[in-house]
Amino acid sequence: MESPLTDAPTDTRTISVTVNGTRWQGEVEVRKTLADFLREDGGFTGVHVGCEHGVCGACSVLMDGEVVRSCILFAVQADGHEITTVEGLGNEDELSPLQQAFVDHHALQCGFCTPGMLLAAVDLLKHCPDPSEAQVREALSGNLCMCTGYAGIIRAVRAAAPRMKG
Amino acid sequence: MEASSTQWKGRAVPLREDLRFSTGRGTYIDDMKFPDTLHVALLRSVHAHARIREVDISEALAMPGVVCGLTGEDAARMSEPLRSLIPIPVQLDAYCLAYGKVTHVGEPVAAILATSRYLAEDALEKIRVEYEPLPAAVDPEAAMEPDAPLLFESMGTNVMWQDRFDYGDVDEAFGRAARVLKKRFYIQRYSSTALETFGCTAVYDDRREQLTIWSNDQRPGQAMPIVAHSLGLTHSRIRFVTPDVGGGFGNKRKAHYLIIAALLSRLSGGKPVHYLEDRRENLMALIHACNGVMDLEAALDEDGHILGLKVRDIADEGANVLNPTVHSILKLGNLTNCYRIPVVRYEVNSVMTNKCPSGANRGIGKPFMCLAMERMMDHLGRELDMDPIELRRRNLVPPEAMPYTGPSGALIDSGDFAGTLDKLLPLIDYQEFLREQQEARAQGRYIGIGIAIGLEPSTSNASAYMLSSGRRSASGAAEAAMVRVEHDGSILVLLGDVGSGQGHETAAAQIVADELGVAMDGVRVSPFFDSLVTPWLYATGNYSNKFAGTDVGAILGAARKVRDKLLELAAYLLEEPLDNLELAEGCVRARNRHVHRKTLAELAFVAYRDLLSLPPDMEPGLEGRFYYRPDIANVPDENRRVRNQLFASNAAHGVIVEVDPGTGGVTILKYGVVHDCGTVLNPSIVEGLVQGATAHGIGAALFEEFDYDAEGNLKATTFVDYLKPTAVEIPDVRMDHLVTPSPYTPLGMKGVGEGGAIPAPAAICNAVENALAPLGCTFDHLPLTPERVWTEIEKARASK
């Protein structure tokens, strides 16, 4: 008798995902993580993989506007959903106010945690447009930064908050 | 020559690399994949110590997507043993894959190459390994015993290096001491765990006979010769490229992986071979800072002056075959910290155990040396019933003694340690705290203050390893750079040390813009190291806090070569005397007639195209390459005294904590750092590094530990059980600076990356002890987890 989990790991399914406003449809292996899918199939290399066990937050993306960890989601779980990666926030010619604040407040050094930090901060500011320092710290506590000691990041998020409203 | 301008140097200009990093457009090693890239997965040892009877990969090779594989036997057949990164006392026959036996949990045993990482990992499950488990040497003191299990039978012992340095007549000093205090300190294994793991991509092009390795290895100058040796290739057939590096802190160097990928790239039919550690592999098998045991004995006179010091150190190297002794050697630089201690005995024990290889981690050995010394100062204060700050003051090397040579020959080139301390106390509201502490204690609250001062020697002098290896090999310190005015007048800078988050592109552009009289926008600094075009030498890389000590000299040297040529060419074309010319606003112009000028683009046109307009004896082109070495590096003298690092920054840390006696939890209420790294090139970079390094020290003090069980199994292999501090735990450090420029670096700059990490563990431990002074708790182990602190509180209460 067939088990309810009928897929072998290497089986594929067709999914349809909208990434940064562009719809993508195709086959993915059912075991492929959302992070690997975004990086390898989508070329969104701003999605960084730091721990592959859902702790460091480097791979954070927005799914339907909510921050999720793409290393512990399967690509098939994103079927029918909208994903925003750091590439969807702004580019070098036109930084989003949050990205500009990260540059202005030296909120990064090696840059590896930065995409995840930015997306976690976008999620925070959506729910809490005028956060206290403690709220920023709490909201970003699921994202590890090994370089900065967080001070610049906290300052940047608070400085960007008024400019991110609406 | 006129002094260069300072239009850009000293300014907190935003970091240009932040633009690509904040848009997710950095190019890290996992982004260096090309069409048809194949992926490596490594089978790793589940035993701390075992003989390998057989490794059978035949079933794995038949799995879907698998291209080929390697065992230790294959590696031994196809490659030469690994050369160590530094000269070491005993050469070990180790290969890129375990051959004959495994010496730690996580050691690579076999490699599988497949069309995806998923398929490669599937295939690992089909590998059969027959092990014969052996007793493991886990505790470093037990590993030194004659009957201990041996990691390397050929050594006949686990002790890689045992030595005694008598710097002065230590027995005489102890003989006349009014008081002697002896204490034992421990430090745990921890690591800075850069957020990006270590990896590489290798491509072997057999038509052109060239091996290209892309890797986030921090020290390509060491890695390339090791790879070349193991593979039997000349250096001229290897191209080594370092892309953006997602944090380093010393950890990212493991030639094993480069060689595995390179060997597989010769079997892959020209397809690129990519390997990247996953986090579990990173935590159990890349690099830990040595755990260690240190006995410290201080002799004092009646007035609290330290007459002499005995240091007996045991550094647990784990199964480190690449650079054992590095922790012991680097402690030579801060054996006496910032204190004028005339004589020292240093007993070294560098011991191999069946644990993850130790190696470079922010500060390398210096955090432990500082921990022991600064904890000792607090113990001495209590012993003498003297304010520990006053005790420190009495022993500091005074500014008028600079440059000061310590008993081990270590050079302190500059500094005002009392001045640093003076600035710290108001920064953390010291007087106010003393009042608050009285009130808090009356209310049953436990708040405490901890002070630690730390010397921060930087820029390693390779000749120090003559002391441990007994032979002359690499010596001195250096870096290389190239500056070129391109055909269109734009400026390109290449630097051997591409950095790993320290803003080298920005910092180098600030220096070159001033030298060549252009706006920073006109200067591009390559974000990549590429051995085909970037000048390099053995010392090339991102380590040892050396940007100020060597990189600045290389950049300046290269820029000045170009500058001199621009001036000479312009003098000829403008028919002006050389000394009436200056570089400004993108031109060479007459000082007294600014319109009499040649733009860099006009000069470049002549230098590259209109060659018959050049002075007849001038070589075409506008390129300067410079290999800079500080001239103060030396070799050990007859008394084995050496400047093992060359330039000394320093920092004073003050931290106020509250301890919850019910849970043992420690909360940081206030943290202050006064840092002195000499001339500041970019205040943003300096402040960022001090804050970040302090966070590393806080992590080591309160959270992080790679603990092993008695069989050598690592008990922390994820970020769930290896705890890194988050934004909730790390406070905003109150920061102030003192500027005592180095007399020996070109711009007076000194290292900045370690001044947070070195004193922080000591400062926090001192603070927790101060908070719990009413209970009389003392701590000799880190990290100060709630469990450890609570246990000591309960013990103290039970004994009352």
What report would you give on this structure?
The complex is a heterodimer of chains A (166) and B (800). With 166 residues, chain A is of the alpha+beta class. Chain A is 31% helix and 16% strand. A five-stranded mixed beta sheet of chain A has the order 2-1-5-3-4, sandwiched between helices. In chain A, α2 packs antiparallel against α5 (151-164) and α3 (114-127) crosses α5 (151-164). The longest helix of chain A is centred in the last third of the chain and has 14 residues, at 114-127. With 800 residues, chain B is α+β, with helices and mostly antiparallel strands. In chain B, 27% of the residues lie in helices and 24% in strands. In chain B, the strands form seven sheets. Chain B has an eight-stranded mixed beta sheet with strand order 3-5-1-12-9-10-11-22. In chain B, strands 7-15-14-13-8 form a five-stranded mixed beta sheet. In chain B, strands 18-27-28-29 form a four-stranded mixed beta sheet, sandwiched between helices. The interface between A and B is large, with 59 and 59 residues.
